[in-house]
Amino acid sequence: MSYNYRHLYYFWVVAKEGSMSKAAIRLEMAIQTISAQVHELEKSLGYLLFKPAGRGITLTESGFAALEIADQIFSLGEKLPEILKSASKSPKYKIHIGVSDGLSKLVTRQLLDPLLKIANVQMIVHEGEFEDLLADLALHRLDIVLADRPAPNSKNLNLYSEELTKSSLTWYSPKQFIEESKKAFPECLNHLPILLPTTHSTVRFLIDQWFTKNGITPNIVGEFEDSALLKTFAESGMGVFPSVEIIQKELKQSYGIEVLGHCKDIYEYFFAIRSEKKIANPLVEAIIKQ
């Protein structure tokens, strides 16, 4: 750093007040002292920040650019006492959560439900690729990662996985297909348009195996990485789809989707992954101990 923040502050006050004399009154310092400090800043930056204008001074182009940056720095600084006062009155307990992009939003909501029962919690939730989230977790940018698979065994990452819950798979459908279907489940899937998660999801392989086992030749009309997008298209009448049984109530309430049939032999598992063997963050413990 080639310049002094104190010098930058003096420059900022002069620029905001419009003159050295007014800045001197505000800072309760001699004009000569302030002028010398501003000249030191100009010397360290290599640019003139003020130029004569009549009997006073005005900003140069470089001065305007410096003022824009100084405004951001010192405007925030002046708000610091107010921010700290507010924070001390209502302290927030923060937790940085990574959510694997293959995880259902409705399932995620259920897994994080314990945090909603704790006062003054601030969740910072990041959605992303599984591998990227694990890297951020290992670097302590995240406190916990929620995913549909455990972390791989790796001495370099040193991560710990906890199974939070599991749920059997259920097939869901807009009402129109249930009313129109003339075959029992699962034979009816041979005649209905089907929406599936992409191979990005760990459960997709199990679904494909289940089709083969039950002699079903699926008419796949859509594949989605985003589970919420899949449900939106299903709601519009595009097709039937599989999802976990534990969100049956939410699907009916939010999307008007009905149960078509159950796959009791397919389970989807949900994991919490952390980077420390001993749980230090009580909010992480609340998620794991649910």
Automatic annotation (TrEMBL):
Name of this chain's protein: LysR family transcriptional regulator
GO biological process: regulation of DNA-templated transcription initiation
Keyword line: Activator, DNA-binding, Transcription, Transcription regulation
Single GO molecular function: DNA binding
Pfam families recorded: HTH_1, LysR_substrate
Family, per entry: Belongs to the LysR transcriptional regulatory family.
Organism: Polynucleobacter antarcticus
Lineage of the organism: Bacteria, Pseudomonadati, Pseudomonadota, Betaproteobacteria, Burkholderiales
Matches recorded under InterPro entries: LysR_HTH_N, LysR_subst-bd, WH-like_DNA-bd_sf, WH_DNA-bd_sf
PROSITE patterns the record matches: HTH_LYSR
Domain HTH lysR-type, residue spans: 1-60
